Amino acid sequence: MKKIILSFVISTGILGLILLVPSCTQSPVSDAPNRALIISGQNNHNWQGSTPVLKQILENSGLFSVDVAQTPATGKDMSTFKPDFSKYQVVVLDYNGDSWPEVTKKAFEAYVSGGGGVVIYHAADNAFADWKEYNKMIGLGGWGDRSEKDGPYIRWRDGGFVRDTFPGRAGSHGPQHAFRVTIRDTAHPITKGLPAIWMHSQDELYSELRGPAENLTVLATAFADTANKGTGQHEPMLMTINYGKGRVFHTALGHAMGDAPYPAMECVGFIVTLQRGAEWAATGAVTQAVPEVFPTFNVESKWPLFRPLTLAEILSNLKDYKPGDTRYNLQDLTNYIRQNYDVGEKYATIEKNLLQFLEGTGSADAKNYICKELSVYGTDKALPVLKKLQKNEETAEMARYAIERITGVYTN
Ligand code: ZN
Fold this sequence. Notes:
Blueprint lengths: L1 H19 L13 E7 L6 H14 L3 E7 L19 E4 L8 H12 L3 E5 L10 H7 L14 E5 L2 E5 L12 E7 L13 E7 L12 E8 L10 E10 L2 E6 L11 H4 L1 H16 L27 H8 L9 H13 L4 H14 L5 H14 L5 H8 L2 H15 L5
Parallel strand pairs: 1-2, 1-3, 3-4, 4-11
Antiparallel strand pairs: 5-6, 7-8, 7-9, 9-10, 10-11
The structure holds zinc ion (ZN).
C-alpha cells in the first residue's frame, strides 16, 4: 500500500500529497495552500470572459483557492470598493478602469510593500496612469497618455537590457499574430526549465511600454517584427518587480476581446507562466513542473481552458491515464469535484459518474486516482463498487484505502 500511495504522491505532486495526508481538512475548498484574489469589473477587454479563465488556470494549479472582487461598473460610485487584501497571498489584476478610492489605494500599497504578491495581467498595465506607486509596481505601462515623463523604454541591446529615455508614446501593438517568446533570464524560478524560445499563440504583442522600471527584471521578450507593423524591438513580455517586500509578476500576454475562444489564454505557455508567476508572487518559490505539452520553437500548444470542461470530458481525458502523463487531467477532475461538492444532489450525480467509470474500461491508474478522490469525498454508495475493485490486484490497495476512509474502519 505504501508503495502505491507513494507513486501517487510523485505522479500527482503537491495536490496528491495534500489530499493523501490523513489529517487533511475535510473542507472541499480549503486544501489549496494559497489564497488568490482576482480584481475585475472594468476593462477595455472582455473581463467577463477573461476573469473566469484566470480563475480556472490558478485553481487548476492546485495551489490556489480563488476569490473574485468585482468593482462597481464604470462611472459608478467606487467608494465602497475596499477588498481586504491582507487575506490573500496574491492579488491578480484583470482591471483597467476607474480610479480606486484613496483608502483602497493606500491599503494596496501597504499590502504590496509589506510582502504581498501581485500579478499584473495584460491590460492591467494600462491602468492607473496617474497613480505613482502603481506605476512602480508594474514597472512598465502603456497608453493612458503615458510618455517619456513616466520613464524609459527597456531595450535589449548587445546581450543586455538598457534604459532608453528617447521621447515618445507608451503602448502600441500591431495586428494579432502568433509569435515567439524568448526567455532572457533562465535562472529565475518562474522561467527555469522552460524552452529558451517558444511559440505563443495569437496575441497582441504589447510594445513600447515605459515606466519607472525600478527593481525590474525582464524574464522574457518577444520580437515585434516590422513586417507585422511592429517596432523592430525585442519587447518585454514577462517581468518581475520588487516593490518593498512585495513580489510582482507582470505578464503582457493574454489578450481577450469579444467572445471566446481566446487563443492567447489557451496557450500552454501563457497558462504555465501565469501559474508559475502567481506561485512565485505568492511564495517566492516555484514548485510546479513544466508540462510536456509546453509549446516549442515552432509548434504552438493550446489547452482549451476558456470554459470549464464537463465531467464527461474530464473522465474521457483521464481514461488512459498512466504515471508520467500530464497531471492536468487529474487536476481537472479534482477541481471539478471540489467546485461542485455540496453533499447534495450534484455530488450524488458526480459520484454516480465516477462509479460508472470505475466499472468501465479505464486504466488501473485512472481508477486508482478516482479511488483516491472517493477516499476524500465518497459516500456509502461507493462501497459496493470499491469492494469489487478490491478484488483486482491493480486497484486493490487504493480501493481498500478509500473504503477505510469512507467507513472509518481500518483493517491494519
Ligand atoms: Zn489586448
